[in-house]
């Protein structure tokens, strides 16, 4: 990889770390602490949240009719998502050990915690669980696919891609046949940055 690309990747990593630190500052601003997997709000914040919770009747009365009518379509998407989640999990459990690819930690991608917010009513909590699951599951599957692509076809695209996944920086340049033949096996095994 050339120096400029390496420089950009290192800058992205520093920015991600800075973003993480800024997010952690929000714990103080909104009066909560994370202890293990549990989020604990201070008592005053809990009381304020309960006062701001909207009743179901008020929530349904304010909801646009088209939102109510399209809700079944959104929830129908859960069935194929569950199948895809199960399929991807089985795939990596069976194939990754064979290929020597480190497994993706599902729990780092699928984060469901917003349902504990007391200012959300039951429908809002359920919607937050759905979005947390669905977006986390797609992130999980994208990481499985990225590691698979690194193993089977680590070649950058000639055309611009909409989003670059986590393993793309390891890939060979489009059209670089010599390096492909020379470095394919090394790139297939280059997961040491995940340790």
Structure description:
It is a single chain. The protein starts with a helix and ends in a 7-residue tail after the last helix. It contains 7 helices and 2 strands, in the order H-E-E-H-H-H-H-H-H. The protein has a two-stranded antiparallel sheet with strand order 1-2. It has one domain (53-194). The chain has helices at residues 3-29, 43-52, 56-62, 65-76, 78-99, 122-152, 177-188; strands spanning 32-35, 38-41.
How would you concisely characterize the structure shown here?
The protein has 7 helices and 2 strands.
> Proportion of β residues?
under 5%
How many separate helices? 7
Structural class: mainly alpha
**Overall spatial form:** elongated
Q: What is the string of SSEs from the N terminus onward? A: HEEHHHHHH
Would you spell out the secondary-structure blueprint of this structure?
Blueprint: H1 3-29, E1 32-35, E2 38-41, H2 43-52, H3 56-62, H4 65-76, H5 78-99, H6 122-152, H7 177-188
Antiparallel strand pairs: 1-2
Helix pairs in contact: 5-6
């Amino acid at each position: 990889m050339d120096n400029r690309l390496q420089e950009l990747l290192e800058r992205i990593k520093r920015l991600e770390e800075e973003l993480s630190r800024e997010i952690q500052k929000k714990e103080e601003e909104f009066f909560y602490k994370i202890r293990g997997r549990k989020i604990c709000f201070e008592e005053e914040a809990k009381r304020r949240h309960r006062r701001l919770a909207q009743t179901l009747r008020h929530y349904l009365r304010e909801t646009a009719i088209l939102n109510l009518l399209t809700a079944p379509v959104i929830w129908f998407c859960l069935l194929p998502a569950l199948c895809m989640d199960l399929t991807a999990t089985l795939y990596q459990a069976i194939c990754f050990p064979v290929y020597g690819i480190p497994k993706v930690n599902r729990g780092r991608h699928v984060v469901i915690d917003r349902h504990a917010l007391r200012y959300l009513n039951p429908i809002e909590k359920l919607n937050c669980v759905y979005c947390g699951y669905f977006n986390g599951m797609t992130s999980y599957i994208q990481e499985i696919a990225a590691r698979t692509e690194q193993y089977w076809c680590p070649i950058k695209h000639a055309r611009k891609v909409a989003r670059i996944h986590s393993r793309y920086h390891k890939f060979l340049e489009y059209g670089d046949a010599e390096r492909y033949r020379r470095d394919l096996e090394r790139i297939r095994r280059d997961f040491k940055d995940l340790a």
